[in-house]
């Protein structure tokens, strides 16, 4: 298991009981959030859904879809009051390890060009741009492209 940057922090699989908290955080963190149903479907589909917790409190979550030897990180987020303390980087490292342990050769993800913090994190973790997905995300003014990134394991 990956090292944690903060005492009492640990990673564990997401449970159905976490869905209200996860959906609440998601609403706070994204202008166009996933619904609780999206997370429930991810759990039902058997995706690798994880939380990062401080004691009993869920402070972040991630959803990784693994198909054969490829992993796709569908979501990763850290509660606002826990951001900028190294939690996101450590949790992403953990999710990459989950993919590696499942014998994946690559981790894919999409990110908004406007998401400076996430882009910095992914770039410094070694993710490289593979393609641009035009008009992938909704915005208040229309659509925004997605950068499609990959990390070869
Ligand atoms: C992206 C996110 C997960 C990062 O989590 P975090 O816990 O704040 O990340 P860390 O503290 O580990 O910081 C990671 C790096 O990002 C940098 N960073 C954080 N905020 C930044 C900002 N606004 N601009 C530029 N860099 C930033 C940090 O300085 C750090 O880089 P460094 O190690 O080189 O100093 C978090 O910002 C988040 O949950 N955002 C909302 C949801 C989201 O956008 N998820 C990603 C969708 S693709």
Give a written overview of the molecule.
The chain is of the alpha+beta class and 153 residues long. It has one domain: Gcn5-related N-acetyltransferase (GNAT) (Aminopeptidase, 3-Layer(aba) Sandwich). Helix content is 29%, strand content 39%. The protein is built from four helices and seven strands; from the N terminus they run E-H-H-E-E-E-H-E-H-E-E. Strands 1-2-3-4-5-7-6 form a seven-stranded mixed beta sheet, with helices on both faces. Bound molecules: coenzyme A. Coenzyme A binds next to strand 4, helix 3 and helix 4.
Report how far the terminal alpha carbons are from each other.
17 Å
Q: Name the bound molecules.
A: coenzyme A
Query: What is the architecture at the second tier of CATH?
Result: 3-Layer(aba) Sandwich
CATH class call = Alpha Beta
Number of strands: 7
Beta content:
35-45%
**What's the rounded overall pLDDT mean?**
96
Structural class: alpha+beta
Residues in helices, as a percent range: 25-40%
Task: Spell the H/E element sequence.
Answer: EHHEEEHEHEE
Low-confidence stretches: none
Query: Number of domains in the coordinates?
Result: 1
Numbering strands along the chain, what is their spatial order in the largest sheet? Answer: 1-2-3-4-5-7-6
**CATH topology description:** Aminopeptidase
Major sheet: size, sense and barrel closure?
Answer: 7 strands, mixed
| C-alpha Rg (nearest Å) | 15 Å
Spell out the CATH superfamily.
Gcn5-related N-acetyltransferase (GNAT)
What is the count of DSSP helices, taking H or I runs of 4+ residues?
A: 4
Which geometry do the CA atoms define?
globular
């Amino acid at each position: 298991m990956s090292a944690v940057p903060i005492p009492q922090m640990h990673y564990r699989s997401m449970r159905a009981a976490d869905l209200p908290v996860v959906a609440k955080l998601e609403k706070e963190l994204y202008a166009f959030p996933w619904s609780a149903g999206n997370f429930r479907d991810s759990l039902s589909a058997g995706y690798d859904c994880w939380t990062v917790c401080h004691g009993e409190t869920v402070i972040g979550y991630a959803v990784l879809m693994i198909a054969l030897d490829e992993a796709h990180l569908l979501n990763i987020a850290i509660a606002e009051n826990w951001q900028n303390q190294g939690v996101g980087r450590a949790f992403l490292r953990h999710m990459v390890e989950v993919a590696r342990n499942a014998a994946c050769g690559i981790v894919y993800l999409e990110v908004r060009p406007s998401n400076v913090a996430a882009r910095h994190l992914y770039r410094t973790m070694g993710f490289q741009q593979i393609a641009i997905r035009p008009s992938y995300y909704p915005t208040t003014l229309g659509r925004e492209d997605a950068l499609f990134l990959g990390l070869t394991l």
